[in-house]
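Sorry to interrupt, but I need a hand with the structure work. Could you write out one complete protein record for me, on any chain you like? Just paste the record in under my message, thanks.

. . .
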Amino acid sequence: MTNDQPSDNPNHGFGETDCKGKTRLLALAEKVEVTFAGLNERGGEMPHAELLSLWRARIRPFWRLHPGMYEVLADKFLRIGDLFSVVDCAREGMQLCGNRPLLVYRCALALARMGARGQAEELLSENETKLAALPDFRPLIARLHKDAWIATRDEGSLRKARDEYARAAAEPRGDVYYPAVNAATLSLFMGDNEGAERFGKLVRDDLAGRKEMNYWELASLGEAELSAGELDAAREAYGLAVATGPTPDQLGSTRDQASLLLEKLGFDSEELSDVLGHTRVVCIAGHIPDGKGRETPRFPADRVLVVRESLGKVFARIAPTTGIGAAAAGGDLLALDALREMGIQPTVVLPMKSDVYAGKRVAPSGGEWTDRFHEIISDGGRLLEAPATSSGNGGQTWSFGNDLILGAARQQALAARGDCEVVAVWDGKKGDGMGGTHAMVLRAKSIGARVWVIDPMDGTTREWKPAGGSATIGAPTSQWGVHVEGRTRRILWSCLESGIVDKAAALATNRIELGAQSRLVFNSMESCGKFLEALDRSECVDDCGVGISVGPAAGEEGHAKEPEFYQDAAILANAALLHTRSFLSTWECASLAALYDEVDVAFEFAGRMEFQGNRIAPFYTVMMPGF
């Protein structure tokens, strides 16, 4: 047989190594085919951890051949409320497979739900022709106008939203009830009672023949009854909706809409809280188990089960909608476990990379705690890690971590018009150093949070109130770093020399590089804000990119003199150069800002990117003026 003759040998033309490689490629391709078929067969929701595992194990070259993988997975992430993953999945799908309508729509919807209205509008506008045939395209356009009205109370946005919903209800490509119920509610706010009644009837007619209704159908029926002033009928429909087991995001959306309607109709905004509940974000803190060398017992190993039982009871009493905390051995991990048992996927906030954190705050307590830590971290909850600047082991690091946790909890509570409560496994005494449970409790009370304390010795629970009725906290635990890329010399020095920035207070630790870059450290959020306001007013800011990050205050032994969080700020400053007057910040800035009522600042989700140390994290646009 000559070399140019055909061969029946399937390995013809391949060496042994090449053959193995070809076999492996075929096996991978087959695996993607099977995975895609399995996703399509499994309707409805899937466990969050399973979805994340599938996403992390994706093989991009093969997924590119199956764009439906991105579409289906984005939809499943959307169903369970993991909006970050929806955006990540949809954007990668659009990058590899083009702007397919379902990917664009799901990405825009997730952005809208996160409050990134500008990005959602831009994405829809760029792809309007492709999306026009989708049943939910017009309702999403209407939703963005409605969000703009809620944020600004602009009458023009209100009318645009109502008219778009009315158009979608009159020319339905999908269900009538969704655009109709929104048109009914917005008509009421426009003073168009006749329109409200007409659209409300459309909702009831559309849903009348359905034997089994899902959450959104029942919630929409409740809203239609409420817009007609039928409070008892609304309560009944809302009760049936809640019984279907909605996600916290779904229930929060319904609750916000109902509150608006109740106020408009002259009822107490909490009138339906008996069925719709109230958003409660629980922030957790707690002692780690006693080590072998501890002289005075604080949290002995034989008290773990008692504390775990008490945590379950206090959470049942509070009825939290979500939870946020660190993941140290002891109180943290026990509380996270109790929340998961209630069906709540908590957010874990760490002041460093999770593997470094585990080595410092988990592993010393034993392998059982390490196993529990990795189980919780990998179980599909949201994980937020601060920059590597926080990899120290001193009190400033843990104090900074406490502020991040409490700030993230309060940020979520404020966004949902809810409450932030703290549950602490605490012996009621001062800690062994800075940044312990005692410090967290004081910080929580200083911002008006309700605090529940579980004594680790006997499991008793009480609401904690400071002696004298007020709590005092120590010095700030954070430094704010600003990195400015572009032609910055004139801006920088005009701000410094004019006294806009207090040199003595703000520049004690600053390093300034003249020319194309300027890097500054501010000892308070206020000083940082003054500088940013000055930049925003400057004519030269159009040529600049501004990145803002935050880390623990300097001073602890072993802490980097040249803060590493500058790296994050530099990355963001470079990204900001792509946009005019763009100020970008890390998620840590957005979280800590929630602790300062006196600072009027707004942050809008901008995206996620890879920062230092392969850390994928969200970043935000700082809405100026106001910071």
About this structure: The CA atoms of residues 29 and 62 lie 6 Å apart. Residues 1-17, 503-511, 556-561 have pLDDT under 50 and may be disordered. The first helix runs from residue 16 to 41. The two ends are 79 Å apart (CA to CA).
